[in-house]
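Is this the right way to post structure tokens for a design question? Let me know if I should format differently. Anyway, here goes:
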């Protein structure tokens, strides 16, 4: 049985290495894709909201309806409009009105940072607001919870692990089939050769019916046994 066990182990190890590497690569790629989509969503929301705020401010009012509509998205935890001194002028939660925060200087259209907010892990998308009559830019702070993103990533990981388990079972089943097809006949041929070496020339091998190299080898072993049997009579 040593040959068949070795064959099974080699096949399973190679398959598991390949399958494991493939699943890890797929997992990282999927995680990165989900992260990228989440960030793209935040950027689009921040840019569109900033455009509406600037347009409405030019007309003399704040777009409260649009701003309140932002929090209907399950990912959006809060929005703040912050003036150029760092004071929160408007917020989705009135508790934060008038609070002072530190202004972040950045050159990009959108600045993204990760913070912990009221027990939630949040990505904050900060967009500059060019408001009529203001010499310095104001800012829109848009906080998106990453909980839904992590949930999707967790489900994706579970699916990948389930797929990995299926690969293992298929590998085991396939290795058994291959062992029966290749390893078992080789063991039969080995046993036949051992019998010949012990002086037993009555060899009958079913493998000789095969149409491959193993069949040819089985026929040769039977012919050898017949020849040796004839020779030992004299």
């Amino acid at each position: 049985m040593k040959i068949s066990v070795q064959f099974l182990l080699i096949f399973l190890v190679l398959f598991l290495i390949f399958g494991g590497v493939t699943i890890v690569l797929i997992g990282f790629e999927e995680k990165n894709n989900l992260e990228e989509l989440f960030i793209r969503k935040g950027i689009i929301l921040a840019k569109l909201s900033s455009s509406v705020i600037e347009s409405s401010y030019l007309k003399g009012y704040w777009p409260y309806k649009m701003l309140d509509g932002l929090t209907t998205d399950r990912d959006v935890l809060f929005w703040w409009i912050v003036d150029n001194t760092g004071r929160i002028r408007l917020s989705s939660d009135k508790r934060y009105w008038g609070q002072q925060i530190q202004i972040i200087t950045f050159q990009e259209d959108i600045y993204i940072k990760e913070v912990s907010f009221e027990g939630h892990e949040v990505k904050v998308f900060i967009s500059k607001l060019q408001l009529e009559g203001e010499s310095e830019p104001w800012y829109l702070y848009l906080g998106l919870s990453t909980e839904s993103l992590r949930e999707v990533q967790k489900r994706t990981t579970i699916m990948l692990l389930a797929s990995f388990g299926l690969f293992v079972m298929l590998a085991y089943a396939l290795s058994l089939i291959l062992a029966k097809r290749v390893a078992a006949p080789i063991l039969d041929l080995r046993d036949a050769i051992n019998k010949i070496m012990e002086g037993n020339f009555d060899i009958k091998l079913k493998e000789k019916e095969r149409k491959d190299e193993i069949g040819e080898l089985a026929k040769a072993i039977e012919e050898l046994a017949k020849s040796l049997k004839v020779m030992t009579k004299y």
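Format looks fine. Someone answered above. Worth noting: The two ends are 37 Å apart (CA to CA). The CA atoms of residues 1 and 206 lie 19 Å apart.
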